[in-house]
Amino acid sequence: AIGGPPDVGKMMGGDKEEPDPDAEKKEAERQEALRQQEEERKDKYAKMEAERETMRQGIRDKYGIKKREEAEAEAQAAMEQASEGSLTRPKSSVPKGCGDDDEEEESIMDTVMKYLPGPLQDMLKK
């Protein structure tokens, strides 16, 4: 091959390349290097995530927020405890205004009136 990359001649069917006796060793080293890079990358991200988690915890403590998993676990435990020995769902899970109410019932109109401005309430009462 006169011009171009040195292995163009080999690609054209010229001198056959000798199989590299160290090829297996080089491949193993390459795989090891890749594995090590992956390990370092994972360590780096694990460290970054740990730092973030520390910051998140600080914010949670400052504002009294519970971790999502903890809050869900507590809610689940409360539901299970409330429904223990009962075949129906716990009464607390029935939204106000649905199902059977023991409290004094409030008409929809009364509820709506609460949220209206004064002059509008007077108009509707007449």
TrEMBL record:
| Gene Ontology CC | cytosol; perikaryon; SNARE complex; terminal bouton
Keywords annotated in UniProt: Coiled coil, Cytoplasm, Exocytosis, Neurotransmitter transport, Synapse, Transport
Where is this protein chiefly located? cytoplasm
> What Pfam families would the database entry show?
Synaphin
- Residue stretches of biased makeup (Basic and acidic residues): 22-70
The subcellular localization recorded is: Cytoplasm, Cytosol; Perikaryon; Presynapse
Give a yes or no for keyword Coiled coil in this entry.
Answer: yes
- Which intervals carry biased composition (Low complexity)? 74-84
Would you kindly state one Gene Ontology biological process term found in this protein's UniProt entry? Answer: synaptic vesicle exocytosis
SUPFAM superfamilies given in the database record? SNARE fusion complex
Q: Where is this region: Disordered?
A: 1-104
Q: Give the GO molecular function terms.
A: syntaxin binding
- Family per UniProt? Belongs to the complexin/synaphin family.
* PANTHER family noted in UniProt: COMPLEXIN (PTHR16705), COMPLEXIN 2 (PTHR16705:SF13)
Q: How does it assemble?
A: Binds to the SNARE core complex containing SNAP25, VAMP2 and STX1A.
What is the protein name given in its UniProt record?
Answer: Complexin 2a
